[in-house]
Amino acid sequence: MIAVFVAALTGLVAAGLYFGYTHVFASANDFYIPWRATRELVFNGRDPYSEAVARDIQLQLFGAVRAAGEHQYTFAYPLYVSLLLAPFTLLPYDAAQALWQSVLLMIVLAAVPLVANESRAKYLLPAVLFTLLFYPTARGLILGQMAVAAFGAVVLARWGLMQGHDRIAGAALALALVKPQESYLVVALVLVWAVARRRTQLLVAFSAVIGICLLASWLWMPEWPRAFLTGAAAYAAYVGVGSPVQVASTLFGSLADPLAWAVTLALLMWLAVTLWREARTGWPQFERLLMLTLMISQLIAIGTATTNQIVLLLPLFWLVRAMLSRALKLAALSAFLVAPWVVFAATLVGKDEQPIAFVPVTVGLLLLWLSQPLWQTRQRESEVA
Known about the structure:
The chain is mostly helical and 385 residues long. The chain is built from 19 helices and no strands. It is globular and about 65 Å long.
């Protein structure tokens, strides 16, 4: 019954988007690229990673071929993403875009109660509004980003872990790899934990789902791993944007490179030491480690995007829940809601987001995490008083 309701609601939202938006103004470039590349593979047997397909995409989006050194807007996903998108290629783009964006919206709405750990309506509605207006979420929905789907998979995996549904958690972890830049570290962490805790069902479910995806992709296009790796290397070269740590370090001029390396190394050592301590003591604070991993993964990710930072809603809500003061909660959430939009608007060049937009959410979350001893001490003092 719930599935029927969700399907009907998704259809209604898709119809509204189609007649009110996508049929008039086709957009969502980040969805069009993998959709068009997949469509070329499905209907014409063309290599989705090829320069010829990239040129067709560029001509459709910009009316001209992109110059060398510019963002090429190529298909830079693992081929199993095309398994997910293949049904959408049966529709014309305006209808496919409307359906895809409605699916992403449903994923976000379904994720909010799990992320915020809240079911009471008076608190759930503000959580929904915050999530939808959160810069990475809003940008991801507008662009039709695969990052939103990966976020939903990470949220589902975390719920499965906490509730003891290992098969669901394992399958969701595999699906989270549709956007490896977003989920790479947390997938690795959970697999290490599952091996240490002998969670066989999780490992089997993960292996089965990722195995099916890889096998089906190989049968469809045997040469795809080489084409994907070549395309990913080219993507990293022409995008030319480092990790949020590297971007933030540019504010320090000539010290930028050594500072970026030092901070990245420190973050990795922090994560490694925390992992080692957890493993030695029987994983008493595994959820805390999970949140730390999500935060660090986005701080050090190379060739990432602000849309990938939607996954930071998990550690953000986790930290805010630990605050007893409503004023402090409101201040923290307000800062994370407003600051990214201010930075985006202040640094926008034409229609292009600038690298500095990577900084507010990632570095802000790191500062909030490091400030825990301060506000937790004040909470204890207020309780004693």
